[in-house]
Design a protein that fits this description.
about 400 residues; alpha/beta; D-Maltodextrin-Binding Protein, domain 2; 13-stranded mixed beta sheet; two-stranded parallel ribbon; globular
Length: about 400
Protein backbone atom coordinates (compact mmCIF):
# COMPACT_ATOMS: atom_id res chain seq x y z
CA UNK A 1 0.00 0.00 0.00
CA UNK A 2 1.11 3.53 -0.62
CA UNK A 3 1.38 5.94 2.28
CA UNK A 4 0.37 9.58 2.00
CA UNK A 5 2.30 12.02 4.15
CA UNK A 6 0.30 14.95 5.43
CA UNK A 7 1.10 17.85 7.68
CA UNK A 8 2.81 21.20 7.42
CA UNK A 9 6.18 19.96 6.20
CA UNK A 10 8.65 22.29 4.54
CA UNK A 11 10.75 20.96 1.67
CA UNK A 12 14.31 22.02 0.85
CA UNK A 13 16.06 21.43 -2.46
CA UNK A 14 18.99 19.01 -2.63
CA UNK A 15 18.77 16.70 -5.56
CA UNK A 16 20.20 14.15 -7.86
CA UNK A 17 23.51 12.90 -6.68
CA UNK A 18 24.83 9.57 -5.63
CA UNK A 19 22.61 8.89 -2.68
CA UNK A 20 21.61 5.49 -3.93
CA UNK A 21 22.11 5.31 -7.63
CA UNK A 22 18.62 3.98 -8.24
CA UNK A 23 16.87 7.20 -7.25
CA UNK A 24 15.03 9.80 -9.21
CA UNK A 25 17.72 10.77 -11.59
CA UNK A 26 19.67 7.81 -10.96
CA UNK A 27 16.68 6.09 -12.58
CA UNK A 28 17.96 7.59 -15.78
CA UNK A 29 17.63 5.79 -19.08
CA UNK A 30 18.18 7.93 -22.16
CA UNK A 31 16.60 7.58 -25.55
CA UNK A 32 18.77 8.90 -28.37
CA UNK A 33 18.24 10.20 -31.90
CA UNK A 34 15.22 8.87 -33.72
CA UNK A 35 14.72 9.47 -37.45
CA UNK A 36 11.70 11.63 -38.20
CA UNK A 37 10.98 10.76 -41.83
CA UNK A 38 8.33 8.15 -42.59
CA UNK A 39 9.34 7.88 -46.24
CA UNK A 40 12.72 6.23 -45.79
CA UNK A 41 13.35 2.56 -46.47
CA UNK A 42 13.37 0.17 -43.52
CA UNK A 43 17.13 -0.26 -43.89
CA UNK A 44 17.55 3.50 -43.45
CA UNK A 45 15.58 3.73 -40.20
CA UNK A 46 17.80 5.12 -37.48
CA UNK A 47 18.02 3.03 -34.31
CA UNK A 48 16.49 4.10 -31.06
CA UNK A 49 19.64 4.45 -28.97
CA UNK A 50 19.20 3.95 -25.26
CA UNK A 51 21.77 5.54 -22.96
CA UNK A 52 21.75 3.72 -19.63
CA UNK A 53 23.75 2.87 -16.56
CA UNK A 54 25.18 -0.66 -16.94
CA UNK A 55 24.84 -1.48 -13.22
CA UNK A 56 21.69 0.21 -11.96
CA UNK A 57 19.01 -2.43 -11.42
CA UNK A 58 16.06 -2.42 -11.19
CA UNK A 59 16.27 0.36 -13.79
CA UNK A 60 19.03 -0.68 -16.18
CA UNK A 61 21.76 -3.25 -16.71
CA UNK A 62 24.14 -4.38 -19.44
CA UNK A 63 23.03 -7.97 -18.80
CA UNK A 64 20.85 -8.82 -21.80
CA UNK A 65 18.97 -11.42 -19.77
CA UNK A 66 17.99 -8.80 -17.17
CA UNK A 67 18.12 -5.37 -18.83
CA UNK A 68 16.03 -3.48 -16.28
CA UNK A 69 12.65 -1.76 -16.10
CA UNK A 70 13.47 1.37 -18.08
CA UNK A 71 15.48 -0.44 -20.73
CA UNK A 72 12.59 -2.81 -21.35
CA UNK A 73 10.15 0.11 -21.53
CA UNK A 74 12.55 1.67 -24.04
CA UNK A 75 12.59 -1.54 -26.04
CA UNK A 76 8.79 -1.55 -26.13
CA UNK A 77 8.77 2.06 -27.34
CA UNK A 78 11.33 1.25 -30.02
CA UNK A 79 9.27 -1.70 -31.22
CA UNK A 80 6.10 0.41 -31.36
CA UNK A 81 7.94 3.09 -33.36
CA UNK A 82 9.39 0.48 -35.70
CA UNK A 83 13.00 1.26 -34.77
CA UNK A 84 15.77 -1.09 -33.67
CA UNK A 85 17.23 -0.44 -30.24
CA UNK A 86 20.92 0.02 -29.45
CA UNK A 87 22.69 1.02 -26.24
CA UNK A 88 25.13 3.69 -25.14
CA UNK A 89 26.24 3.05 -21.56
CA UNK A 90 26.58 6.08 -19.34
CA UNK A 91 27.04 6.20 -15.57
CA UNK A 92 24.28 8.02 -13.69
CA UNK A 93 26.10 9.29 -10.62
CA UNK A 94 24.85 12.83 -11.07
CA UNK A 95 21.57 14.29 -12.21
CA UNK A 96 21.11 17.71 -13.71
CA UNK A 97 24.60 17.65 -15.11
CA UNK A 98 23.80 14.33 -16.79
CA UNK A 99 20.76 15.90 -18.42
CA UNK A 100 22.74 18.93 -19.51
CA UNK A 101 25.58 16.90 -21.02
CA UNK A 102 23.50 14.23 -22.73
CA UNK A 103 20.00 15.47 -23.49
CA UNK A 104 20.62 19.19 -23.81
CA UNK A 105 24.04 18.49 -25.32
CA UNK A 106 22.23 16.79 -28.23
CA UNK A 107 23.86 13.45 -27.53
CA UNK A 108 20.40 11.95 -27.17
CA UNK A 109 16.80 12.90 -27.87
CA UNK A 110 14.98 11.79 -24.76
CA UNK A 111 15.71 10.72 -21.20
CA UNK A 112 13.57 8.36 -19.16
CA UNK A 113 12.90 8.60 -15.46
CA UNK A 114 12.95 12.38 -15.01
CA UNK A 115 10.66 13.94 -12.39
CA UNK A 116 7.47 15.15 -14.05
CA UNK A 117 7.64 18.79 -12.99
CA UNK A 118 7.79 22.08 -14.83
CA UNK A 119 10.22 23.18 -12.12
CA UNK A 120 12.76 20.64 -13.31
CA UNK A 121 15.13 22.37 -15.76
CA UNK A 122 12.22 24.15 -17.43
CA UNK A 123 11.67 25.46 -19.99
CA UNK A 124 14.70 23.72 -21.54
CA UNK A 125 13.18 20.30 -20.84
CA UNK A 126 9.65 19.17 -21.75
CA UNK A 127 8.00 15.92 -20.69
CA UNK A 128 5.93 12.98 -21.83
CA UNK A 129 2.93 11.72 -19.96
CA UNK A 130 3.57 9.92 -16.67
CA UNK A 131 5.16 6.50 -17.05
CA UNK A 132 5.58 5.52 -13.39
CA UNK A 133 5.55 6.76 -9.81
CA UNK A 134 8.69 6.52 -7.68
CA UNK A 135 8.78 6.81 -3.90
CA UNK A 136 10.44 5.95 -0.65
CA UNK A 137 8.83 3.05 1.19
CA UNK A 138 8.34 1.47 4.58
CA UNK A 139 9.42 -2.17 4.47
CA UNK A 140 8.19 -4.46 7.24
CA UNK A 141 7.34 -8.04 8.07
CA UNK A 142 3.97 -8.84 6.51
CA UNK A 143 2.18 -9.07 9.85
CA UNK A 144 3.35 -5.64 11.07
CA UNK A 145 0.85 -2.80 10.58
CA UNK A 146 2.24 0.72 10.11
CA UNK A 147 -0.32 3.41 9.34
CA UNK A 148 1.29 6.43 10.97
CA UNK A 149 4.57 7.71 12.31
CA UNK A 150 3.25 6.87 15.78
CA UNK A 151 3.22 3.20 14.79
CA UNK A 152 7.03 3.42 14.55
CA UNK A 153 7.36 4.46 18.20
CA UNK A 154 9.68 2.16 20.11
CA UNK A 155 10.80 0.39 16.96
CA UNK A 156 14.21 0.14 15.33
CA UNK A 157 13.96 1.79 11.91
CA UNK A 158 16.69 1.57 9.26
CA UNK A 159 17.12 4.89 7.44
CA UNK A 160 19.69 5.79 4.83
CA UNK A 161 22.17 8.49 5.73
CA UNK A 162 21.30 11.98 4.45
CA UNK A 163 17.92 11.04 2.96
CA UNK A 164 14.40 12.33 3.44
CA UNK A 165 13.38 9.46 5.75
CA UNK A 166 16.32 10.13 8.07
CA UNK A 167 15.45 13.80 8.22
CA UNK A 168 11.77 13.06 8.78
CA UNK A 169 12.53 10.95 11.85
CA UNK A 170 15.44 13.06 13.11
CA UNK A 171 13.59 14.66 16.03
CA UNK A 172 11.77 11.53 17.14
CA UNK A 173 13.72 10.30 20.15
CA UNK A 174 11.08 7.61 20.70
CA UNK A 175 12.07 5.94 17.41
CA UNK A 176 15.44 4.19 17.31
CA UNK A 177 17.19 5.03 14.05
CA UNK A 178 19.55 2.47 12.52
CA UNK A 179 21.63 4.45 10.03
CA UNK A 180 22.67 2.64 6.85
CA UNK A 181 24.49 3.78 3.73
CA UNK A 182 22.25 2.18 1.09
CA UNK A 183 18.85 0.54 0.59
CA UNK A 184 20.70 -2.78 0.33
CA UNK A 185 22.10 -2.28 3.84
CA UNK A 186 18.65 -1.28 5.07
CA UNK A 187 17.11 -4.49 3.75
CA UNK A 188 19.96 -6.52 5.24
CA UNK A 189 19.42 -4.84 8.63
CA UNK A 190 15.77 -5.84 8.43
CA UNK A 191 16.67 -9.38 7.45
CA UNK A 192 19.17 -9.99 10.26
CA UNK A 193 16.98 -8.33 12.88
CA UNK A 194 18.97 -5.19 13.69
CA UNK A 195 15.98 -3.21 12.38
CA UNK A 196 12.24 -3.92 12.53
CA UNK A 197 11.37 -1.49 9.73
CA UNK A 198 13.37 -0.21 6.76
CA UNK A 199 12.45 3.28 5.51
CA UNK A 200 14.30 3.24 2.19
CA UNK A 201 14.06 3.83 -1.57
CA UNK A 202 11.03 1.83 -2.73
CA UNK A 203 12.12 0.58 -6.18
CA UNK A 204 15.38 -0.84 -4.82
CA UNK A 205 13.59 -2.37 -1.84
CA UNK A 206 11.04 -3.98 -4.14
CA UNK A 207 13.72 -5.38 -6.42
CA UNK A 208 15.71 -6.82 -3.52
CA UNK A 209 12.56 -8.18 -1.86
CA UNK A 210 11.78 -10.10 -5.03
CA UNK A 211 15.25 -11.27 -6.02
CA UNK A 212 16.97 -11.82 -2.66
CA UNK A 213 14.30 -12.14 0.02
CA UNK A 214 11.63 -14.28 -1.68
CA UNK A 215 8.97 -11.56 -1.27
CA UNK A 216 8.87 -12.07 2.49
CA UNK A 217 8.41 -8.37 3.25
CA UNK A 218 5.53 -5.94 2.88
CA UNK A 219 6.35 -2.68 1.10
CA UNK A 220 4.30 0.49 1.59
CA UNK A 221 5.27 3.34 -0.70
CA UNK A 222 4.99 6.82 0.74
CA UNK A 223 3.21 9.65 -0.97
CA UNK A 224 4.22 13.18 -0.04
CA UNK A 225 6.46 16.13 -0.74
CA UNK A 226 10.07 15.08 -1.01
CA UNK A 227 9.09 11.43 -0.71
CA UNK A 228 7.36 10.61 -3.99
CA UNK A 229 6.95 11.99 -7.48
CA UNK A 230 5.76 11.00 -10.94
CA UNK A 231 8.40 9.95 -13.46
CA UNK A 232 8.26 10.71 -17.18
CA UNK A 233 10.42 10.90 -20.28
CA UNK A 234 12.20 14.22 -20.79
CA UNK A 235 12.92 15.90 -24.12
CA UNK A 236 14.69 19.06 -25.24
CA UNK A 237 12.14 21.82 -25.78
CA UNK A 238 12.74 21.66 -29.54
CA UNK A 239 11.59 18.01 -29.66
CA UNK A 240 7.84 18.56 -29.42
CA UNK A 241 7.12 16.28 -32.39
CA UNK A 242 9.12 13.40 -30.93
CA UNK A 243 7.50 13.91 -27.53
CA UNK A 244 4.05 13.70 -29.14
CA UNK A 245 5.00 10.53 -31.03
CA UNK A 246 6.20 8.88 -27.84
CA UNK A 247 3.09 10.02 -25.95
CA UNK A 248 0.92 8.37 -28.59
CA UNK A 249 2.88 5.13 -28.19
CA UNK A 250 2.71 5.28 -24.39
CA UNK A 251 -1.09 5.34 -24.51
CA UNK A 252 -0.89 1.82 -25.92
CA UNK A 253 1.78 0.58 -23.51
CA UNK A 254 0.13 1.01 -20.10
CA UNK A 255 -0.36 -2.73 -19.63
CA UNK A 256 3.18 -3.48 -20.81
CA UNK A 257 4.65 -0.92 -18.42
CA UNK A 258 2.59 -2.31 -15.54
CA UNK A 259 3.74 -5.84 -16.31
CA UNK A 260 7.38 -4.72 -16.43
CA UNK A 261 7.03 -2.92 -13.09
CA UNK A 262 5.79 -6.18 -11.59
CA UNK A 263 8.60 -8.13 -13.25
CA UNK A 264 11.22 -5.91 -11.59
CA UNK A 265 9.51 -5.79 -8.21
CA UNK A 266 8.60 -2.10 -8.32
CA UNK A 267 6.00 -1.40 -5.63
CA UNK A 268 2.48 -1.12 -7.03
CA UNK A 269 0.49 -0.82 -3.83
CA UNK A 270 -2.59 1.26 -3.06
CA UNK A 271 -2.50 4.33 -0.85
CA UNK A 272 -3.02 4.76 2.86
CA UNK A 273 -2.20 7.76 5.02
CA UNK A 274 0.90 8.33 7.12
CA UNK A 275 0.27 11.19 9.52
CA UNK A 276 3.12 13.61 10.19
CA UNK A 277 3.19 16.12 13.01
CA UNK A 278 3.28 19.79 12.10
CA UNK A 279 6.42 19.97 14.22
CA UNK A 280 8.28 17.47 12.04
CA UNK A 281 11.67 18.64 10.75
CA UNK A 282 11.98 19.92 7.22
CA UNK A 283 12.28 17.28 4.53
CA UNK A 284 15.11 16.92 2.10
CA UNK A 285 14.01 16.41 -1.49
CA UNK A 286 15.49 13.16 -2.84
CA UNK A 287 18.69 13.63 -4.77
CA UNK A 288 17.10 12.58 -7.98
CA UNK A 289 14.26 15.02 -8.20
CA UNK A 290 16.37 17.99 -9.13
CA UNK A 291 15.38 21.60 -9.15
CA UNK A 292 17.43 24.76 -9.26
CA UNK A 293 19.40 25.54 -6.12
CA UNK A 294 20.02 29.11 -4.94
CA UNK A 295 23.29 30.79 -5.78
CA UNK A 296 25.96 30.49 -3.13
CA UNK A 297 26.90 33.63 -1.24
CA UNK A 298 30.49 34.69 -1.72
CA UNK A 299 32.40 34.40 1.50
CA UNK A 300 34.88 37.20 2.20
CA UNK A 301 36.69 34.84 4.57
CA UNK A 302 38.21 32.84 1.70
CA UNK A 303 41.41 34.83 1.71
CA UNK A 304 43.97 32.23 2.71
CA UNK A 305 47.13 31.67 0.71
CA UNK A 306 45.86 28.22 -0.31
CA UNK A 307 42.53 29.61 -1.46
CA UNK A 308 44.14 32.35 -3.52
CA UNK A 309 46.60 29.97 -5.10
CA UNK A 310 43.89 27.68 -6.40
CA UNK A 311 40.96 30.02 -6.89
CA UNK A 312 39.51 29.81 -10.38
CA UNK A 313 37.86 32.41 -12.54
CA UNK A 314 34.16 33.10 -12.13
CA UNK A 315 33.16 30.60 -14.82
CA UNK A 316 35.16 27.81 -13.17
CA UNK A 317 33.72 28.65 -9.77
CA UNK A 318 30.16 28.60 -11.10
CA UNK A 319 30.78 25.31 -12.89
CA UNK A 320 32.24 23.93 -9.67
CA UNK A 321 29.16 25.03 -7.74
CA UNK A 322 26.87 23.29 -10.23
CA UNK A 323 28.84 20.04 -10.15
CA UNK A 324 29.03 20.19 -6.35
CA UNK A 325 25.30 20.74 -5.95
CA UNK A 326 24.38 18.00 -8.40
CA UNK A 327 26.88 15.45 -7.10
CA UNK A 328 28.02 16.22 -3.56
CA UNK A 329 25.17 18.10 -1.90
CA UNK A 330 23.28 15.01 -0.76
CA UNK A 331 25.95 14.48 1.91
CA UNK A 332 27.76 17.81 2.18
CA UNK A 333 24.75 20.12 1.82
CA UNK A 334 23.49 22.41 -0.91
CA UNK A 335 26.08 25.15 -1.49
CA UNK A 336 28.22 23.28 1.09
CA UNK A 337 25.96 24.39 3.95
CA UNK A 338 26.20 21.47 6.38
CA UNK A 339 25.52 21.52 10.12
CA UNK A 340 27.51 18.37 10.87
CA UNK A 341 31.05 19.61 11.41
CA UNK A 342 32.88 16.44 10.37
CA UNK A 343 31.50 16.67 6.81
CA UNK A 344 31.25 20.46 6.61
CA UNK A 345 33.51 21.33 3.66
CA UNK A 346 33.42 25.01 4.60
CA UNK A 347 35.94 24.01 7.27
CA UNK A 348 38.55 22.49 4.95
CA UNK A 349 40.96 25.38 5.43
CA UNK A 350 40.46 25.54 9.19
CA UNK A 351 40.92 21.79 9.56
CA UNK A 352 43.80 21.13 7.17
CA UNK A 353 45.48 24.50 6.67
CA UNK A 354 48.08 24.43 3.90
CA UNK A 355 47.25 20.76 3.30
CA UNK A 356 43.63 21.51 2.46
CA UNK A 357 43.99 21.08 -1.28
CA UNK A 358 46.10 17.92 -1.12
CA UNK A 359 43.68 16.37 1.37
CA UNK A 360 40.75 17.27 -0.86
CA UNK A 361 42.52 15.86 -3.92
CA UNK A 362 43.38 12.54 -2.26
CA UNK A 363 39.90 12.12 -0.82
CA UNK A 364 37.95 12.75 -4.02
CA UNK A 365 40.28 10.50 -6.02
CA UNK A 366 40.62 7.58 -3.61
CA UNK A 367 37.57 8.00 -1.38
CA UNK A 368 37.17 7.04 2.26
CA UNK A 369 35.09 3.86 1.97
CA UNK A 370 34.99 3.18 5.71
CA UNK A 371 33.27 6.53 6.18
CA UNK A 372 30.84 6.14 3.29
CA UNK A 373 32.79 8.38 0.89
CA UNK A 374 33.22 6.73 -2.54
CA UNK A 375 36.12 7.35 -4.91
CA UNK A 376 35.15 9.73 -7.72
CA UNK A 377 38.18 9.45 -10.01
CA UNK A 378 36.29 7.27 -12.49
CA UNK A 379 33.22 9.49 -12.48
CA UNK A 380 34.43 13.11 -12.50
CA UNK A 381 37.37 14.61 -14.33
CA UNK A 382 40.32 16.46 -12.82
CA UNK A 383 38.84 19.62 -14.32
CA UNK A 384 35.65 18.92 -12.36
CA UNK A 385 37.68 18.48 -9.18
CA UNK A 386 39.59 21.72 -9.80
CA UNK A 387 36.33 23.59 -10.36
CA UNK A 388 34.75 22.12 -7.24
CA UNK A 389 37.77 23.09 -5.17
CA UNK A 390 37.76 26.59 -6.66
CA UNK A 391 34.13 26.89 -5.61
CA UNK A 392 34.83 25.58 -2.11
CA UNK A 393 37.52 28.22 -1.59
CA UNK A 394 34.78 30.86 -1.89
CA UNK A 395 32.75 29.46 1.00
CA UNK A 396 35.46 28.70 3.58
CA UNK A 397 34.68 29.56 7.19
CA UNK A 398 36.84 31.95 9.15
CA UNK A 399 38.44 31.03 12.48
CA UNK A 400 35.86 33.02 14.42
CA UNK A 401 32.77 31.72 12.67
CA UNK A 402 30.12 29.72 14.47
CA UNK A 403 30.69 26.65 12.34
Amino acid sequence: MSVNVTGNVKVSCCKFCVLLRASPLALITILAPVGASSSVDADDVKPLRLCADPTNLPYSSDDASEPGFYLEVGQAIGKALGRPVTYNWYKTYFGKRSVRVTLLGKQCDAMMGLPLSDDFMGPAVIFSRKISEQAYALVTAKELVVGSIEDLRGKRVAVQYQTTPQNLLALRDDIEKVTVMSPDEGMKALDVGTAEVAFVWGPTAGWLNKTQYQNRYKIRTIEGKGLSWDAAIGFAKTSVELRDQVDAVLLELDQTIGDLATKYGLPGDTSTRLLVSENSPSLLVPPTAATEVPSAPHSPSATSKDSKAHAGDSASIEEGREVFNSTCAHCHGTNAVQGERRIDLRRLQLRYGENARSTFWTTVHEGRPSKGMPAWKDVLTDEDFNNIYAYLTTVQASAGSAN
